[in-house]
């Protein structure tokens, strides 16, 4: 590495970890994390875990999930992501084990949501489900359809 006098931030490291991992060089990503002057935080380990889920890399996925759980044992993200990784690889006993661990530790998964503006009015959007070329969403508790092109078309039931 060229010494420019510039100290990379954790965001810079997360970007490099993401690039290494997506390009199939997870070992280089892990080496970079090991050589960091700062202690890796949840951003770094979540980046590793998300790339592992994308690539089906159980070895590094388990390692990053373990680090995330050590940082915050009551955040559901690493448990859910590791469970999804196991499911994608057909490791159903491990999926059940992770879900049981979450229950035993009282780790709760909360529904995520976003905001969307329709006709100058802000609505909460959650529970997205892809359905062919359309996206079905619940907006303020009513099921609606969004066309992927153009303005949000409301067909609330």
UniProtKB/TrEMBL annotation:
<keyword id="KW-0677">Repeat</keyword>
<dbReference type="GO" id="GO:0009451">
    <property type="term" value="P:RNA modification"/>
</dbReference>
<dbReference type="Pfam" id="PF01535">
    <property type="entry name" value="PPR"/>
</dbReference>
<dbReference type="InterPro" id="IPR011990">
    <property type="entry name" value="TPR-like_helical_dom_sf"/>
</dbReference>
<dbReference type="GO" id="GO:0003723">
    <property type="term" value="F:RNA binding"/>
</dbReference>
<dbReference type="InterPro" id="IPR046960">
    <property type="entry name" value="PPR_At4g14850-like_plant"/>
</dbReference>
<dbReference type="InterPro" id="IPR002885">
    <property type="entry name" value="PPR_rpt"/>
</dbReference>
<dbReference type="InterPro" id="IPR046848">
    <property type="entry name" value="E_motif"/>
</dbReference>
<dbReference type="Pfam" id="PF20431">
    <property type="entry name" value="E_motif"/>
</dbReference>
<protein>
    <recommendedName>
        <fullName>Pentatricopeptide repeat-containing protein</fullName>
    </recommendedName>
</protein>
């Amino acid at each position: 590495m060229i010494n420019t006098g510039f100290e990379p931030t954790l965001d810079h490291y997360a970007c490099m970890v993401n690039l290494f991992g997506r390009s199939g060089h997870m070992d280089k990503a892990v080496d970079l994390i090991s050589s960091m002057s700062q202690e890796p935080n949840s951003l770094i380990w979540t980046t590793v875990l998300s790339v592992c889920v994308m690539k089906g890399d159980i070895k590094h996925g388990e390692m990053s999930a373990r680090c995330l759980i050590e940082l915050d044992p009551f955040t559901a993200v690493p448990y859910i992501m590791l469970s999804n990784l196991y499911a994608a690889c057909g490791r159903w006993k491990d999926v059940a084990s992770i879900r049981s661990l979450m229950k035993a530790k009282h780790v709760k998964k909360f529904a995520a949501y976003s905001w969307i503006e329709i006709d100058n009015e802000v609505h909460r959007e959650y529970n997205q489900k892809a359905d062919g070329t359309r996206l079905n969403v619940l907006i303020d508790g009513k099921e609606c359809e969004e066309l992927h092109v153009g303005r949000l078309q409301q067909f609330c039931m």
